[in-house]
Specification:
about 350 residues; mainly beta; five-stranded mixed beta sheet; about 0% helix
Length: about 350
């Protein structure tokens, strides 16, 4: 297969309209943004191209740390009681908070399914693996013993149906952790690497940063098969963050702490990359499914958003406190690798 390099240029659109009154209908809710430390959740008001961060939502005093789910209608919360709570949001405000029965807080790793309806939580100190499902309705939890592999757990991935949980370990080993009483080997990746499931599917995305290869695997826990595999070039930063659009047709990847991102189209296996103007700290699906938060959202920093749904990748930011300021234009090179 031959490849070709096509240069495409885009620019950073400023999300910088001052917002004097966040509750006005003229400034609609664009989405929610969680700070990198999980200490606060802020509404993003306006529209792409003209928006800003509103003051943080007032959370219950017992909430120690929050974990905002994709879709942004709810979040898990470490409670001061030692339990795990479920925060529900409506129109940019907290609508309900309740503790989840038999669920424990303080997990080292928290991973949501692509739609956020399920979650997997691992606590290394106690060796506890929790699988939660029905977060959009009435959450239930299954508490398990975290299987041992002889290596340290780096990241988790869980399906929307909560029927599969996969773990990535620091030796590059990928194991099926649930269902089953023991860890079941799936594959081994070079480091750095990352994993995620596609929305509404049991198809596992594995990103091998050392080999610069991304693959979609079917039949995890049964007869493993490779659905697709594409070269994306070396990825740096541990772990490799992996996310997808809601339709499952587009992947986004970046190493934690890196300054570039990669988009993979699973429809035609084309790859595009972009240098971003801020260090990547997460790839959280935002809004309608084609925008992703990748950096920022604290009391004094801008929130950076990547729009990945169109023919070009574009970065944009929302100013803290709705301060009016226009960003300079950036012209990062996008390289598309396609098939002749």
């Amino acid at each position: 297969m031959q490849s070709k390099r096509i240069k495409i240029y885009s620019y950073a659109a400023a999300l910088a309209l001052a917002i004097p009154q966040y509750g006005q209908m003229s400034n609609p809710l664009l989405g929610l943004a969680q700070s990198d430390d999980g200490a606060q959740i802020q509404p993003v008001m306006g529209v792409l191209g003209s928006a800003g961060l509103a003051p943080a939502i007032a959370l219950p005093s017992s909430v120690v740390k929050s974990h905002l789910a994709p879709g942004q209608g709810w979040a898990l919360a470490d409670d001061a009681s030692g339990g795990l709570g479920l925060l529900k949001f409506s129109e940019g405000s907290l609508s309900a908070y309740q503790l989840i029965g038999n669920a424990a807080g303080g997990a080292d790793l928290v991973a949501f399914s692509p739609r956020g309806t399920s979650a997997a939580l691992a606590t290394s100190k106690t060796g506890l693996l929790q699988v939660l499902k029905g977060l959009d309705k009435s959450a239930t939890v299954l508490a398990l013993t975290l299987p041992k592999t002889g290596a340290s757990l780096v990241s988790l991935a869980v399906t929307d149906a909560a029927d599969l949980v996969v773990g990535l370990f620091d030796d590059g080993g990928v194991y099926l952790l649930y269902p089953g009483a023991a860890a079941q080997f799936v594959t081994r990746l070079g480091l750095p690497s990352g994993i995620a499931f596609l929305p509404d599917q049991s198809a596992l995305i594995v990103a091998d940063g050392a080999a610069g290869l991304v693959s979609v695997l079917d039949g995890v826990g049964a007869s493993l098969q490779t659905r697709a595999s594409v070269s994306v070039g070396p990825l740096s930063g541990t772990p490799v963050l992996v996310s997808s659009t809601l339709d499952g047709r587009t992947l986004l990847l970046a190493g934690l702490g890196s300054s570039s991102m990669v988009r993979v189209s699973l429809s035609d296996l084309t790859v595009s990359s972009i240098s971003v103007p801020s260090v990547v700290s997460r790839i959280d699906r935002f809004g309608g499914g084609n925008e992703f938060l990748f950096s920022g959202a604290s009391s004094d920093t801008a929130l950076w958003i990547l729009a990945a749904g169109g023919p070009e990748l574009q970065t944009a930011f929302a100013q803290p406190h709705g301060i009016s300021k226009v960003s300079p234009r950036l012209r990062p090179e996008i390289v598309v690798v396609g098939r002749n």
